[in-house]
Each structure stands twice: as C-alpha cells, then as structure tokens.
C-alpha cells in the first residue's frame, strides 16, 4: 500500500499518458467485441472532436497542476482537512480520500454544472455527443476543465488529501470514466451488481439520455454511492436510450469542434422539460 502511494506521489507525466492511452485502446477494442449499440457511425471520425477535447483537458490540467500540488502540500504541512484530522490506517485513509475527491471533485462539480446555467452551457458539449463511446469520457470544453479543476482543488483542500492519493484518484478517474462511457454491453446481472459500488456502463448511459429528467440523474464518476445517497440515482432500459441533448439535435454540428467551442457563448436554449427558471 505504501509502495502504491509512493509511486503515485511521483508518477511521471509519461506514465499518466500511458494509462490514458491504454485505457482508450482497451475499451475501443472491447467496443468492437461486445458493443451495446451497433452505431452507424465512422468510429475514427467520431473520435476526432473527442480526442481534441481530451487534449485540451490535459493541457488545462497540466498548466494548473502547480495549484493542486501547492494545495496538497499546504494541507499536509498545516494538518488541515478531513484526512489530517482523522487517525486512520493507511488503507482507510486512501479509501476515504478517494471517496471525498469523488464527491467534491467529481459528483458535486458535475451536479453544479447541471444546476447553474452558465456552467451548463460549458457542460453541454459533453452531452451533445450522439454516439457515446469510450472517447466521450473526456469530451469537456476547456471551460468545463477549469471548473472541474477548481472543484478538485476544493476536494483536496477540504479532504486534506496528500498528493499521492490525489494522483491515484486522477488516474483511476480516467480509466473509470472511459469504462462507464464505453459502448460495451456487460451481462445485465454483472452490471447491476457492480453498480452498487461503482458507476457501471448502464448506470452512466442513463445520464446521456437526451431529455430531462434523466439528464439530471446519475452524476457519479467512480463510486455510485453519491447518487444513491443524494437521491439522484435512476434506471432506464438500454433499448429506450437516445443519446444527445434535445436542444442540440443536429448530429453534424455536434461533431464540429469550432461550433462546439462556441456553444457556451451562444444563446441559451430551453429544454423540453423545464430545467432552469426563465
Ligand atoms: Zn452531465
């Protein structure tokens, strides 16, 4: 356990890139073998904007990384935050650290983006994908990447999380997100069983259904406990799923990088189900 944390404390950027690329490659191949939907799409062409937004996400996080490092150093030196206040064995410290980062840095960050209109305008880009697959995982507008970074930093601050656990969480987060976005079909029983602990592919797909109220459910990233706890857990049959957002139905525009980048600065379109106060 100590070795694991020691490794993540100093994980080289190259190793983080290998994790990301291996994950995409693994699930990409699995999508050929056990697809959930037989999409009538060009897989490589569809991946282009998603890879672009994955790269901008990496750049944003790389540029801001020093803030995360400084915050983590500060909480450890000043003995501040939940993990610093609790005396726990290492395994429990890691588990609680991962849970807290998942709650504040991912679940809360995601929930807030569905509830605050200007933030939703950035998060929309993620939801406009009409063919959700493993490449959709990091399809985030650079503005959304900044929002998520702020919440991750907040999670590190409140949680008092040492950098080894932060980087372990981020590496796990990449792979889990690729897994639950992947266009793969697990045996229904298996999907249901794992959804009691982690966000399963079927669970997250509901979040990508094109209309409310489903869009506003299943916000979880790694652990499914937060949606169950906050009452935002929902189920839907796979065969009833329609990916995308009702307000952005044009499939061609939804693969156009320039148009996607401009969405947050365009006029707000009200969804069919009332989502925000007009
Ligand atoms: Zn969302």
From TrEMBL:
Keywords, comma-separated and alphabetical: Lipid metabolism, Membrane, Oxidoreductase, Transmembrane, Transmembrane helix
InterPro entries registered for this protein in UniProt: Fatty_acid_hydroxylase, Sterol_desaturase/TMEM195
Membrane-spanning residues: 18-39, 51-69, 89-112, 149-169
Membrane-topology descriptor: Multi-pass membrane protein
Subcellular location(s) of the protein: Endomembrane system
Taxonomic superkingdom: Bacteria
Pfam families membership: FA_hydroxylase
Keyword Protein biosynthesis: no
Name of this protein: Sterol desaturase family protein
């Amino acid at each position: 356990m100590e070795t694991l944390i020691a490794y993540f404390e100093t994980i080289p950027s190259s190793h983080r890139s290998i994790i990301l690329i291996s994950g995409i490659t693994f699930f990409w191949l699995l999508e050929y073998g056990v697809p959930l939907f037989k999409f009538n799409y060009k897989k490589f062409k569809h991946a282009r904007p998603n890879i672009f937004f994955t790269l901008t996400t990496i750049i944003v996080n790389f540029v801001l990384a020093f803030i995360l490092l400084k915050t983590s150093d500060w909480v450890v030196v000043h003995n501040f935050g939940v993990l610093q206040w609790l005396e726990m064995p290492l395994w429990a410290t890691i588990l609680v650290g991962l849970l807290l980062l998942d709650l504040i840095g991912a679940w809360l960050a995601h929930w807030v983006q569905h509830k605050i209109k200007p933030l939703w305008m950035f998060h929309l880009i993620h939801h406009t994908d009409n063919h959700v697959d493993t490449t959709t995982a990091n399809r985030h507008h650079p503005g959304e990447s900044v929002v998520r970074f702020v919440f991750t930093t907040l999670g590190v601050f409140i949680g008092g999380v040492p950098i080894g656990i932060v980087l372990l969480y981020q590496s796990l987060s990449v792979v889990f997100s690729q897994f639950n976005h992947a266009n793969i079909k697990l045996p229904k029983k298996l999907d249901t069983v794992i959804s009691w602990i982690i966000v399963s592919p079927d669970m997250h797909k509901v979040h990508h259904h094109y209309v409310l109220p489903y869009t506003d459910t299943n916000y979880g990233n790694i652990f499914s406990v937060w949606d169950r706890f906050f009452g935002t857990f929902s189920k839907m049959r796979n065969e009833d799923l329609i990916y995308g957002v009702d307000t952005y139905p044009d499939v061609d525009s939804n693969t156009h990088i320039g148009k996607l980048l401009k969405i947050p600065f365009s006029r707000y379109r009200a969804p069919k189900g009332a989502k925000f106060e007009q």
